[in-house]
Design the sequence.
C-alpha cells in the first residue's frame, strides 16, 4: 500500500463544496489584512503622498516665483540699460552742442580781440604819428625860429609874434608841399 | 511518520518496478490537520492563509509604518504596488472621486489573494491556498455583499432591483426573460464564477505541477529517466508559468470586484 491511496480514501467530496472552517479562517485572515491596511498603513502612505505632492508643488511654485522675479529683474535691467543709452546719447548731443557753441563763442571772442588789438594798434600808431608830427612841428618851429633869430639878429622873444610867424611859415610850407606832392605824384 | 502523511517522493514506487502510477487528484487538496483545538482542525491551507496575512501586513508595515516623504527602497516598491492597484484597477474602473473609498479594500484584496496564490511555488509550502474553494468563495462573498449593499443603498429598493434585473421597458415582450436571466446572472452565477475562476485556475495549476513532479519521480528508472528529465523540465516551465498566472488571477479577481462595485454605483442602463 502506498500513502496516496491511503489519503485518497478519505476524499469523496466535491471540491466545489466549501468546508466551513476554511471559509471562516479565510475571512478572518483577509479582514486582519484589511483592518491593518485600511486603518493604519494606507492612511499613513496617503498622508505622505499628499505631503510629497505638496512639497513638489511648493517647489514648483517657488521655482516659478524665482523665474518671474528673474524675468522682472531682467526687464528692469534692460529698461535701465535703454535709459542709460538714451542719457548717454543725450549727453553726447549736449556736449557736441556745447562744444560747438563754445567754439563759436571762442571764435567770436578771438575775432573781437583781434579787432581790438588791431584797433588799439591803429590808435597807437595814429597817436604816435600825431605826437611825432606835433613834436616835429615844435622842433621845426623852434629850429626855424632860432635860425631866423640868428639870421635876423633880432630876438623873437615875443611869443605871440613868434607863434604867428611860425604858423604862417608852416602853412606856407604845407601849401607849398601839397602842390609839390601832387606834382611829384603826377610826375611819376 | 505515518503512512497517511507521506508524500509520493517518500515511496520507492518507480516505473518498471511493478508499481502503478499514483496520479494526483482531489486527495492532493485535502490535508490532515496540523493540530486540533477543541474539535477545530487547523490544517496547512489555514496556516498558509494566516501566513499570507502576516506577510502582507508585515510588508506594508515595514514599508508604510514610518512612511517618509523621501521614500526608501522598500517604501518605493510598496508604493509601486499600491499605486498599481489604486490607479491601474480602482481609479480606472470607478474614477478617483468614487474610487478612493474602495482603495483600501481592493489593495488588501489584491495582495492577500496574490500571496495566497504565491505559496504554490514557495518551497515547503508549495500549495496555493486559493485552490481550496472556501478561500476564494469567502472573498467573493465579501465582494458580493459589498456589491449588493451598494446597489440598494445607491438606488433604493426598487431602483436596486431594476439595476440588478437590467429593467428596460424598450425591450418589450422579451423583458421578463431578460429580467430572469439578469437576476440569475447577478445574484447566483456571477459570485460563483468570481470565486471559481480563481479557484479553478489555481487548482489546475497546482495539479499540473504536481502531475509533472510526481511523474518525474515515478519515471526515474531505467530508460524512463529520459522521460523523467522531460517531465522535470515541464515542472520548471509550469512553475514559471504559475508565477505569472498567480499574479494574473489576483489581478483579475480584483478587476472583477472593481467592475461589480462600478456596476452597483452606475445608473440604470
Sequence:
Amino acid at each position: 500500500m502506498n500513502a496516496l491511496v491511503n489519503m485518497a480514501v478519505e476524499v469523496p467530496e466535491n471540491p466545489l463544496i466549501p468546508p466551513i472552517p476554511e471559509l471562516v479562517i479565510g475571512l478572518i485572515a483577509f479582514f486582519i489584512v484589511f483592518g491593518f491596511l485600511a486603518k493604519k498603513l494606507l492612511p499613513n502612505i496617503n498622508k505622505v503622498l499628499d505631503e510629497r505632492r505638496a512639497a513638489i508643488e511648493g517647489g514648483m511654485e517657488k521655482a516659478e516665483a524665482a523665474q518671474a522675479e528673474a524675468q522682472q529683474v531682467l526687464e528692469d535691467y534692460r529698461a535701465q540699460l535703454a535709459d542709460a543709452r538714451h542719457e548717454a546719447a543725450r549727453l553726447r548731443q549736449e556736449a557736441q552742442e556745447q562744444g560747438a557753441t563754445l567754439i563759436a563763442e571762442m571764435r567770436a571772442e578771438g575775432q573781437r580781440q583781434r579787432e581790438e588789438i588791431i584797433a588799439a594798434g591803429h590808435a597807437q600808431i595814429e597817436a604816435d604819428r600825431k605826437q611825432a608830427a606835433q613834436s616835429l612841428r615844435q622842433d621845426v618851429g623852434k629850429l626855424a625860429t632860432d635860425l631866423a633869430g640868428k639870421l635876423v639878429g633880432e630876438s623873437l622873444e615875443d611869443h605871440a609874434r613868434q607863434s604867428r610867424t611860425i604858423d604862417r611859415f608852416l602853412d606856407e610850407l604845407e601849401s607849398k608841399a601839397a602842390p609839390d606832392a601832387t606834382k611829384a605824384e603826377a610826375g611819376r | 511518520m505515518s503512512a497517511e502523511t507521506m508524500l509520493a517522493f517518500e515511496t520507492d514506487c518507480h516505473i518498471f518496478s511493478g508499481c502503478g502510477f499514483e496520479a494526483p487528484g482531489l486527495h492532493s487538496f485535502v490535508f490532515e490537520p496540523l493540530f486540533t483545538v477543541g474539535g477545530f482542525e487547523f490544517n496547512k491551507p489555514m496556516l498558509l492563509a494566516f501566513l499570507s496575512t502576516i506577510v502582507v501586513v508585515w510588508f506594508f508595515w515595514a514599508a508604510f509604518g514610518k512612511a517618509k516623504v523621501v521614500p526608501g527602497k522598500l517604501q518605493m516598491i510598496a508604493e509601486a504596488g499600491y499605486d498599481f492597484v489604486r490607479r491601474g484597477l480602482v481609479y480606472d474602473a470607478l474614477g478617483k472621486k468614487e474610487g478612493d473609498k474602495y482603495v483600501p479594500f481592493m489593495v488588501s484584496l489584491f495582495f492577500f489573494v496574490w500571496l495566497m496564490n504565491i505559496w504554490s511555488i514557495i518551497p515547503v509550502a508549495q500549495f496555493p491556498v486559493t485552490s481550496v474553494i472556501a478561500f476564494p468563495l469567502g472573498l467573493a462573498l465579501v465582494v458580493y455583499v459589498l456589491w449588493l449593499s451598494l446597489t440598494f443603498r445607491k438606488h433604493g429598493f426598487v431602483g436596486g432591483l431594476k439595476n440588478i434585473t437590467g429593467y428596460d421597458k424598450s425591450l418589450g415582450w422579451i423583458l421578463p426573460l431578460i429580467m430572469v436571466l439578469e437576476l440569475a446572472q447577478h445574484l447566483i452565477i456571477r459570485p460563483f464564477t468570481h470565486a471559481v475562476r480563481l479557484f479553478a485556475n489555481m487548482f489546475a495549476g497546482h495539479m499540473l505541477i504536481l502531475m509533472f513532479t510526481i511523474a518525474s519521480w515515478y519515471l526515474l528508472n531505467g530508460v524512463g529517466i529520459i522521460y523523467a528529465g522531460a517531465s522535470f523540465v515541464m515542472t520548471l516551465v509550469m512553475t514559471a508559468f504559475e508565477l505569472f498566472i498567480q499574479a494574473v488571477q489576483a489581478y483579475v479577481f480584483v478587476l472583477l470586484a472593481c467592475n461589480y462595485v462600478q456596476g452597483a454605483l452606475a445608473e440604470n442602463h
Q: What stands out?
A: Residues 1-9 of chain A have pLDDT under 50 and may be disordered. The two ends of chain A are 180 Å apart (CA to CA). Chain A touches chain B at residues 1-8, 10-11, 13, 15-27, 29-30, 32-34, 36-38, 41-42, 44-45, 47-49, 51-52, 55 (CB under 8 Å). The helical segments of chain A are 3-9, 20-152, 159-187.
